[in-house]
Amino acid sequence: MSEYDECTDSLVDRSVLTELRADVGGDQAIVNAFVRNYVAMLPWRVARLHHALDNLDLDEAMDAVLSLKTSSHMVGAICLRRLAAELEIGMKLLSGGEQLAELTPLVDEIDAFVFGTISQLESSFS
C-alpha cells in the first residue's frame, strides 16, 4: 500500500457535492445525474488505465489518468483523486512508455478503492 492508507476511512468528501449542488442552484437532480455518470464511467476509466499500461502507451495512460483524477476531484472521490495524482507523477518521472509496467501496482491500488468509492457515492447521493 502507498501513503494513502487513510483512504479506508472516507473515500468521498461529501462537502464537494454539497458545493456542486450550491453551484447548480440547489438542484439535487443535477448532482445525482453527475454522480450516476461518474459511477457508470469509473470502471471504464480504470480499465482504460490498465489497457494503456498493458500496451505501454504513455500518451493514452496520461490521458486516462488525467480523466480519472479530474472526474474524481469533481465528485469528491478523494482517495481516487490522490492515487491518480500519484500515478500521474509516476508517469511524468518515466523516461519512456516502456517503463509503464512499473506503475501497475499503483493502478492495482486504484482498483482496490473503486468498489468502496462507488458504494459511498451511491449510498449518499442517489
What does this 3D model show about the protein?
This protein is mainly alpha-helical. The protein has a single domain (7-125), classed as Four Helix Bundle (Hemerythrin (Met), subunit A) (Up-down Bundle), CATH 1.20.120. It has five helices and no strands. It has helices at 14-23, 28-54, 58-75, 78-93, 104-125. Helix 2 runs antiparallel to helix 3 (58-75) and helix 4 runs antiparallel to helix 5. The longest helix has 27 residues, at 28-54. 30% of the residues are buried. The model has no long low-confidence stretch (mean pLDDT 90).
Topology:
Blueprint: H1 14-23, H2 28-54, H3 58-75, H4 78-93, H5 104-125
Helix pairs in contact: 2-3, 2-5, 3-4, 4-5
Domain HPt: 35-111
InterPro entries: HPT_dom_sf, Sig_transdc_His_kin_Hpt_dom
Pfam family, one: Hpt
The CATH homology group name: HPT domain
Instruction: Report the structural category.
Output: mainly alpha
Helix content: over 70%
Tally of separate helices = 5
Name the poorly predicted regions: none
CATH architecture: Up-down Bundle
Largest beta sheet, briefly?
none
CATH topology call: Four Helix Bundle (Hemerythrin (Met), subunit A)
Overall shape: elongated
Counting DSSP E segments of at least 2 residues, the number of strands comes to 0
Distance between the termini: 30 Å
Element pattern in H and E: HHHHH
Number of domains: 1
CATH top level?
A: Mainly Alpha
Q: What fraction of residues sit in β-strands?
A: under 5%
Q: What radius of gyration results from the CA coordinates?
A: 15 Å
